[in-house]
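Retro notes (design track)

What went well: tokenization of the new backbones is finally stable.
What didn't: we kept losing track of which sequence belonged to which structure.
Fix going forward: every design gets posted as structure first, then sequence, in one message. First example under the new rule, 143 residues:
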């Protein structure tokens, strides 16, 4: 959530102004119908404004999920240590689709692995159908 709020603030207070400056400078070049700088700046402005509206909608409708009580089942916000076929271990943080960051181990509860893990307990083995075929995941721990 904090990352989305930071991105929103950067777009509203920084990028929006930068694009406005680019538009202003591009207009000074004259004929707008053949002004590539102006057209590029208008396209960028459109992208920035679209992302701002998208973030506003996400932030307005976001629901912060706090985990309380026992953590014996995988749910949104769980940090799950698994062992795949062949003994390879991985740690996944189950997050909503807007927070996905595979490099940080954050996978969506809607992804094939995330969805398969949901509701299961430590010690259980689940099968996940992937592009490479079926893979078994054994849940080692849930935090």
């Amino acid at each position: 959530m904090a990352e989305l709020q930071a991105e929103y603030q950067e777009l509203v207070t920084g990028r929006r102004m930068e694009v406005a400056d680019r538009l202003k400078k591009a207009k000074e070049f004259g004929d707008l119908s053949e002004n590539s700088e102006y057209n590029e700046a208008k396209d960028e402005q459109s992208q920035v404004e679209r992302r701002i509206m998208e973030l506003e909608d996400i932030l307005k409708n976001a629901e912060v999920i706090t985990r309380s009580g026992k953590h014996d089942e995988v749910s949104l916000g769980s940090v799950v240590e698994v062992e795949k076929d062949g003994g390879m271990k991985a740690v996944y943080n189950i997050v909503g689709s807007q927070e996905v960051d595979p490099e940080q181990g954050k996978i969506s509860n809607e992804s094939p692995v995330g969805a398969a893990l949901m509701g299961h307990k430590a010690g259980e083995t689940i099968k996940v159908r992937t592009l490479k075929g079926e893979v078994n995941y054994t849940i080692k721990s849930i935090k």
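Added context from the reviewer: Helices lie at 2-27, 36-61, 112-117.
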